[in-house]
Description:
By secondary structure, this protein is mainly alpha-helical. It contains 12 helices and no strands.
Amino acid sequence: MKRSIRSQATIYILAAFVFLYSFFPIYWITISPLRGVKGFFEDSTSLLPTSFDLTFFINIWNETNFPLYYKNSFIVAVATTVVTVIFSSLIAYVLTRFQFRGKNLLLNGMLIGYMLPPMLLAIPLLGMFISFGIEDSLFGLTISHIAMTLPFGVWMLNSFFKTIPFELEESAWMDGASRFQALYRVILPLLIPGVISVGVFSFIVSFTDYTFGLMMVSSEVNKTIPIGLAGIKESTSLQRGELLAGAAMIIVPMVILFSFVTRYFIKGLTAGAVKG
């Protein structure tokens, strides 16, 4: 009994440590710029919020191209998410429901592509985009992000499709449904946790990407938030408070997104990992 209590206490302590280790940087980045110009240095050692001043947020929003960076990041992230979810669902469906030569080679090839460092993918992609005339564009940046998120989406949904009994689809066919109707009305509702997981992963990866943005985009009008924020760092007129405010504004969409879909995200990850 005592041993069980000690084990549970150890687990709770480790969980609390991991939570603090993971959450504290986000908390610090968020509260520091909210202290305003005066409190930013005077209260820098305080662990609690001491004031609520939006001066740093207003400065970086009005004195830089931050709104443009924000819009570009949302456009690229949303496009990447939509394309990844649609194509990874269709590819995973074909891989799990059809038998054809080279299926495993295709699946393993996508895994190898996902495991490569982003820079190794960015260099040849940049050469291809220059040939096609789509370098330094949001369209080219979106394609490069899809090259990174699509393999993960296929692998996750491939495992998820395997958890759905094939008999459900056959029953829909016997009731007169076409293959597309069976996929849309029977399979897709069961696939929602996996689809949400892939969507969340794709959005976060695209929204926070730095490597591909640095390689693919050079003009100010096409920069995304991570690249734009790195450029703002070189400015002599803005200080650390504005940079932290910019970083906090990158985190906000992630926190809002996770607060709505955490339950589905965990379910999708565990279902694919355990039953795949």
